[in-house]
């Protein structure tokens, strides 16, 4: 009998088995997340919100130390080489800082707009709008990236818009937008966001160009402000989220660098960027340790944030604004907060499995970028009259994570119209509050008046109000305000020096001497305390004691311009020593207008009219409202014209 041919089933090949295994964790397609017309409309809406909320900044003048930047410091950066290698003799310049790109933007504004504040504020406003668009793009990428999510997130554009809109109109950013000299935080935030976006684009299949873009952006951020170093752990955190999405938690330590070939390359690029930055700092004699504390800005700001908690939780005497890193209560509060946020992250991971990686990434973003932001934001609005620019970068992560988590948790309980109404209400309320708050930043007087209205215990605000009244020759009001400031905080040496100066101008010499003694006892190495006490003694008719104090100030600081100028005033008129001391004073500080005026008087007495006129014109260039120099210049020019006739 003929045997029937039976077709035997084929055994599963090794290749088929491997493919079936791979299918359990498929490699997501490397597709670009394109920018479409709808995204352009969302971005345009964000820009409109920025200008609606922050338009009062366009009508503001210079605040805080903007004038010092423009008149005192920027003229010393007269070339690109001086910007990257600043001179060491710039008066009152914080040499521990090295932020050349921030100075470069200020220099460009100075060239384009001069002393008109509108152009400077317009740059800050446009920068804030650009960062809000970057927040929108980053949120969109994180939501649509198939490597981070098991399936597409519904209404990703809406979530991204709400996150960026809330960031755009949040009141915590009023200081960063209105304060021109404080634009380093927005610039560093822009660099961090570009670094992360380039890293994510590289992970989705980009070529080596994106490694260069990411590393270059990191270097630019470091040259703007040191807090940009936070971009490195954030990028590694993004890579870890991809691994969690694909392999799960158990295999992450074994497959940290096995998913793509890019993490090692990006780490090498970041290492080169950090090395170049460190070389610049070392070349400028700003060490990376104690002298330049900006490298520890991330940890320092975190302990400052946790200091608010530490004061409430642990009975200890801590500085409210800047608790030190080594203080045990501040560290204990930091650990407690980190543990609580890690617990919340784990809960969100288990509760929302399909978006677990993104939830974990969002909460971890808040941890790495120094949140908890919520309490600090609320505390900043309620207790601190001036918003905190140090929270500019953390607020970006906070807005992204908070909006996403609120959206995902409320989807089951609230219909879409209710969620949209709530979002519109919060954005509109934040925009209105930001707008009304921005009007208080139109000048220093209104700002510090508003600060003392919000918090009567704000000693710095009372001090600034006193200085403003002193410049306006309202001596009685200035003395009243500085007394309040000194009573609230008698441990500030510079405030005591201001107290001494104002009391001396009010002819209360004994009160001025006591305030100067307080400054000297607090800080014996501060030359200003000896100068203020010497001036009080000189005005009260004790020139010999005043001379000793001026000499002490010169011994403490050989480049103390005020002490040298006052020593010159004690020498006989027309003497060679008097002229030498005035010239030494101008060598120490070329912008000492009083020394220039006195030197002009000496040259006029010696018959050198042209030199005297040049000195007085230099003094008026420094301060066009210097009335004494105006009167002397008019008298000398009149005498010069009469002699020529």
TrEMBL record:
* TPR repeats by residue range: 459-492
Supply the SMART domains for this chain: TPR
- What protein am I looking at? Transmembrane and TPR repeat-containing protein 3
Matching entries from InterPro entries are given as: O-mannosyl-transferase_TMTC (IPR052346), TPR-like_helical_dom_sf (IPR011990), TPR_rpt (IPR019734)
Q: Could you tell me which residues belong to the region Disordered?
A: 1-29
Q: Which domain of life is it from?
A: Bacteria
- Native species of this protein? Rhodopirellula sallentina SM41
UniProt keyword annotations, A-Z: Membrane, Repeat, TPR repeat, Transmembrane, Transmembrane helix
């Amino acid at each position: 009998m003929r045997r029937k041919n039976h077709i035997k089933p084929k055994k599963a090949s090794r290749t088929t088995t491997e493919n079936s295994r791979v299918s359990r964790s498929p490699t997501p397609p490397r597709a670009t997340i394109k920018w479409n017309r709808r995204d352009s409309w969302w971005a345009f809406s964000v820009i409109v919100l920025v200008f609606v909320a922050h338009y009062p900044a366009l009508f503001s003048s210079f605040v805080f130390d903007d004038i010092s930047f423009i008149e005192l410091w920027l003229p010393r950066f007269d070339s690109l080489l001086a910007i990257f290698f600043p001179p060491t003799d710039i008066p009152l310049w914080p040499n521990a800082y090295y932020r050349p790109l921030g100075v470069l933007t200020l220099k460009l504004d100075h060239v384009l707009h001069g002393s008109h504040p509108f152009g400077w504020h317009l740059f800050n406003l446009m920068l804030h709008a650009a960062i809000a668009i970057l927040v929108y793009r980053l949120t969109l990428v994180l939501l649509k990236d198939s490597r981070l999510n098991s399936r597409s997130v519904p209404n990703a554009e809406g979530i991204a818009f709400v996150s960026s809109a809330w960031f755009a109109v949040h009141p915590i950013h009023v200081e960063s937008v209105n304060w021109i000299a404080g634009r380093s935080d927005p610039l560093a935030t822009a660099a961090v966001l570009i670094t992360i976006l380039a890293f994510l684009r590289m992970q989705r299949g980009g070529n080596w160009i994106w490694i260069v873009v990411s590393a270059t952006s990191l270097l630019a951020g470091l040259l703007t402000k040191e807090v940009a170093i936070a971009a490195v752990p954030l990028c590694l955190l993004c890579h870890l989220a991809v691994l969690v999405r694909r392999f799960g938690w158990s295999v992450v330590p074994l497959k940290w660098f096995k998913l793509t070939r890019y993490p090692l390359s990006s780490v090498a690029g970041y290492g080169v960027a950090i090395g170049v930055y460190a070389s610049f700092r070392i070349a400028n004699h700003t060490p990376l340790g104690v002298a330049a504390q900006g490298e520890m800005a991330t940890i320092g700001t975190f302990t400052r944030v946790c200091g608010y908690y530490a004061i409430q939780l642990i009975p200890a005497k801590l500085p409210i604004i800047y608790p030190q890193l080594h203080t045990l209560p501040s560290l204990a509060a930091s650990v407690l907060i980190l543990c609580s946020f890690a617990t919340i992250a784990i809960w969100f991971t288990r509760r929302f499995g399909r978006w677990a990686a993104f939830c974990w990434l969002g909460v971890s973003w808040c941890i790495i970028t120094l949140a908890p932001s919520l309490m600090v934001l609320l505390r900043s609005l309620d207790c601190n009259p001036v918003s905190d620019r140090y929270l500019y970068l953390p607020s970006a992560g906070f807005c992204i994570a908070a909006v996403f988590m609120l959206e995902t948790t409320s989807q089951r309980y609230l219909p879409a119209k209710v969620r949209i109404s709530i979002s519109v209400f919060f954005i509109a309320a934040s925009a209105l509050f930001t707008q009304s708050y921005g009007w208080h930043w139109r000048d220093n007087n209104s700002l510090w008046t508003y600060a003392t209205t919000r918090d009567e215990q704000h000693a710095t605000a009372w001090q600034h109000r006193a200085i403003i009244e002193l410049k306006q020759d309202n001596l009685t009001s200035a003395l009243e305000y500085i007394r309040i400031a000194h009573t609230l905080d008698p441990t500030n040496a510079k405030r005591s020096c201001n107290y001494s100066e104002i009391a001396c101008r009010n002819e209360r010499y004994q009160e001025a001497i006591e305030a100067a003694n307080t400054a000297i006892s607090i800080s014996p190495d501060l030359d200003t305390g000896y100068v203020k006490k010497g001036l009080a003694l000189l005005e009260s008719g004790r020139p010999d004691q005043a001379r000793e104090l001026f000499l002490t100030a010169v011994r403490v600081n050989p480049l103390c311009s005020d002490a040298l100028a006052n020593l010159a005033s004690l020498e006989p008129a027309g003497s060679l020593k008097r002229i030498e001391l005035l010239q030494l004073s101008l060598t120490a500080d070329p912008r000492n207008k009083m020394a220039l005026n006195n030197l002009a008087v000496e040259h006029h007495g010696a018959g050198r009219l042209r030199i005297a006129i040049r000195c007085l014109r230099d003094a008026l260039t420094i301060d066009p409202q210097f009335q004494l120099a105006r009167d002397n210049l008019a008298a000398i020019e009149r005498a010069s014209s009469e002699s020529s006739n």
